[in-house]
Amino acid sequence: MLRLHNTMTRSVDEFRPLVPGQVGLYTCGLTVYNYAHIGNLRTYIFEDVLKRVLMLSGYKVRHVMNITDVGHLTSDADVGEDKMEVGAAREGKSAWEIAEFFQRAFVRDLHRLNILEPDTWCRATDHITEQIELVRRLEEKGFTYAIKGDGVYFDTARLPDYGKLVRLDAEGLRAGARIEMVAGKRNPTDFALWKFSPRGSKRQMEWPSPWGVGFPGWHVECSAMAVKHLGERMDIHCGGVDHQAVHHTNEIAQTESAYGHPWVNWWIHGEWLVLPKEGGEAAKMSKSAENFLTLDLLIKKGYEPLAFRYFCLNAHYRQQLAFTWQALDAAANAYSHQRRTVQDLRPGHRPGDKPIEQHMAVFRAAAEDDLNMPQALAAMWAVAKDERAQGGEVYATLLEMDRVLGLGIEQMEEGELAISRAEIQKLIDDRAAARQAGRFAHADQIRQQLAAMGIILEDSPSGTTWRRA
Ligand SMILES: [Zn+2]
Fold it and tell me: For residue 454, what are the domain limits?
């Protein structure tokens, strides 16, 4: 039985989908004005584990993830600049080029972390019509008002249960509001659905609308795209805990107001990756200069991306995880140890070997208990150390567990099993002979053949060596 924590109910409940056997999953994607930092990536790893556990439990998952490429302002209070335009100014490129570049970088990071891609990627700028349609619907039902020269806003006072996700005291906020807010807002919690382009200046990204030329608010995009791709009701919506109070709260408000019924059954949020500060409070990782760590930086320092994935699996997704280089070293060592174990076991593995049910049951129980990955890793180590078990079956069990863990055991297998060291050497010799004879096309063909098996050749004056890709 799969049990998952639901932010809405504040409890770990038995998971039941809307349609038996199927799950609709929406995960908030990256705002592509910069690289993802490793704190962002922790969230995507948690969501990937969720998806894989759903699949392990026999569900067919339909996963949609958005790319925010317009409308996410530097402040949650509907003021400040559009992050895309900030990124464009920083890089000296157009907002469109920035979006394209960082989206590619994001997808590359996901691949390197063995994160399964969604069935549907959707970009906010490809769904302007749907967003305008949603705002129009809200306008028809009387939930909106316009602020001259600023934008169209959602009137949160019209919704009695506004803020229910985080049990927000909207009433109290309204009564004692001392928060800085956009002039003309009726309530401090009201939020922009459509922002007008600033008077006298042309934005790079702007569109006509019934209310004036401008761009959609960040929250509107997720609602519009989630409804378009998953329907008016859906099973699970995910994000980081920092999405709860504003982004997801506003998504709920506008979607349930527009359609007149509950929208999402399960809200699941991942905790922060934090950077402990000497003698001070741990800080959330953010894009401010001093604590902006990327996967590229980790790779440059010699860490394997999957060692970072392993590091993340060591903490429950609802607990903060402190990032230190020592802790990452420890995870990298454990990951290398796992690789050695896999390599030792591999020769004994036969195609018919079955996973050991006793160990799988322990693993599954941990995974289905609100994605308890620390316990799932313990189950993985327990089978690896089980001396009474037959090696081939231990290996088969690790492979089965890796369907959830995503630590790349199968890739480790392919790299080794696809071709023996002797065969690699023979091909290297053949290639050298071909080059000697001037048959360069054939030599190149051998290089490509090896590359396809994850073997990279390196030529030097002293001869050719090879390494794993
Ligand atoms: Zn979102």
Answer: 421-468
